[in-house]
Specification:
It is built from 16 helices and 19 strands. By secondary structure, the protein is an alpha/beta fold. The chain has four domains: about 5-60, MutS, DNA mismatch repair protein, domain I, CATH 3.40.1170; about 80-235, 3-Layer(aba) Sandwich (Rossmann fold); about 245-255 and about 315-454, 3-Layer(aba) Sandwich (Rossmann fold), CATH 3.40.50; about 255-315, no CATH class.
């Protein structure tokens, strides 16, 4: 009898004749191994097509199991969580759900796992998130939870891993889970992380994100990797009852005369080089071309130095720090997160105002201690570059200050989302401090292109 097997991230149908007309797509003949083969991600469609064709075979690919027990703890779902689950079920347990930070995406995943009751792998972008999922899964299902990544390799019916570990190990683990939950699934379409989905047979897939859109357009790949967007609610729809009420305020500050003179001079050096070399910085490859050409000559290296300096002056203008001091005074009884575009500015804020700083270089133990101190009220403010954009639960934060950032809509929405977890009587506020008459004004306009800021 023909046999369907899982082999290193692919499906192999062995024992079928090469010219058997009943063998459906996407299975195709692999002359190297004399069998039919398809990507593991096609498992559900392959099985369905074989059944429809009346093809008899033995399924040895499926190694996942039914969970012996469902959830031990049941929380009453919010209306939109129930709607999202039903939409996902109508699409045969495949698809992406878009909900704001703080709206309960993790709880929705618990509901989906309980509904399918199959071995489940949760894939998250950071070890911090892995730990959060580990705790929630354990508390909800009351069973030991497996972890793959961070020096651990313990595979269980309910397992959590990172994207970095998933794409490395999925060619071996891809047959062991019937449901895969992709947290912050906007990361998934990158060439390496996509292997986390392509090498797995899981017929059921749930993608969770607050911001699925990607600047490179690769978010369209989520359709094949996870499924279509089956449900979406935005911040503006849930603010008030399910998320904290909030305000946003953009504040423009001026460079000092000395800063302005230096900024404009440095910017002119950079712009002259770009113009003479015909580089279009607004094009998708513009910045990469600038980096490449600037490395070739002394003038180019000077232009790169000028480019960086004019950005530094805008990022950390004296007036920005003065206004930040004012905000710390106004919000001295609140919990504030200060976001910067670069580590240098984050450390400058930390030194100037004696507040703890978290960057990608901060050790895990130190980061945990800082966040614990923030939650306990020991620290009223924390400054960070990009580390806290996603993946860390800071429910006590109610003030966000964007001192500098990229033009990414996703990043800006994520930073707003950090302060929107609901608390009784809570009203959050996000300040965006922008240096006038610099590229920051255009960057700010781009990143505010979201309903949450209208």
């Amino acid at each position: 009898m023909p046999t369907l097997r899982f082999e290193a991230g692919t499906l192999a149908l062995a024992g079928a004749e090469k010219d058997d007309p009943r063998v459906p797509e996407p299975l195709s003949w692999d002359a190297r191994s004399a069998c039919f083969r398809a990507p593991a991600v096609a498992y559900a469609s392959v099985v369905l097509a074989l059944r429809r064709a009346g093809f008899t075979y033995e399924d040895e690919a499926r190694r996942y199991e039914e969970l012996a027990h469902g959830a031990r703890v049941h929380r009453e779902p919010r209306f939109y969580q129930s709607e999202a689950l039903e939409a996902w079920k109508r699409n045969r347990g495949r698809g992406v759900v878009v909900l704001p930070t703080g709206a309960g995406k993790t709880q929705l995943a618990m509901m989906a796992i309980d509904d399918r009751r199959r071995s489940t792998l949760v894939v998250a972008p950071t070890l911090d998130l892995v730990r959060q999922w580990y705790d929630v899964l354990g508390a909800t299902f009351g069973v030991p939870i497996g972890v793959v990544g961070g020096g651990e390799h313990d595979v269980r019916p309910l397992t959590v891993t990172t994207y970095d570990s998933a794409y490395i190990h999925m060619e071996h683990l891809g047959s062991r889970f019937g449901l895969v939950v992709f947290d912050e699934c906007h990361h998934l379409p990158s060439p390496t992380y996509a292997l986390s989905a392509r090498l797995a047979i899981a017929p059921f897939r749930l993608g969770l994100t607050a911001t699925p859109e990607r600047a490179d357009g690769l978010d369209a790949a989520l359709q094949n990797l996870v499924g279509p967007t089956v449900y979406r609610r935005d911040i503006s729809e849930l603010a008030g009852e399910y998320l904290a009420e909030y305000d946003t305020e953009r504040v423009e500050v001026e460079l000092s005369p000395e800063e302005r003179e230096e900024h404009d001079a440095e910017r002119q050096i950079y712009r002259d080089f770009v113009g003479m070399n015909g580089i279009v910085m607004s094009s998708p490859r513009g910045f990469g071309e600038f980096v490449m050409r600037s490395a070739r000559t002394a003038d180019g290296r000077r232009a790169m130095k000028a480019y960086r300096r004019q950005r530094e002056l805008a990022f950390a203008a004296t007036a920005k720090l003065a206004y930040l001091e004012h905000l710390f005074s106004v919000h001295k009884s609140d919990r504030a997160l200060v976001f910067t575009q670069d580590n240098a500015t984050a450390h400058l804020v930390s030194r100037t105002f004696l507040v703890p700083v978290i960057t990608h270089q901060t050790k895990v133990t130190e980061r945990s201690a800082i966040l614990a101190g923030f939650a306990a009220g020991t620290y009223s403010a924390v400054v960070t570059s990009k580390v806290l954009n996603e993946g860390v639960d800071v429910p006590d934060a109610n003030v966000a200050v964007v001192l500098s950032g990229s033009g990414s809509v996703r990043e800006h929405v994520q930073r707003l989302g950090r302060i929107l977890r609901q608390r009784e009587g809570k009203r959050a506020v996000l300040y965006e401090i922008v240096t006038a008459r610099t590229t920051e004004t255009f960057t700010s306009d781009r990143r505010r292109e979201h309903d949450a800021y209208r």
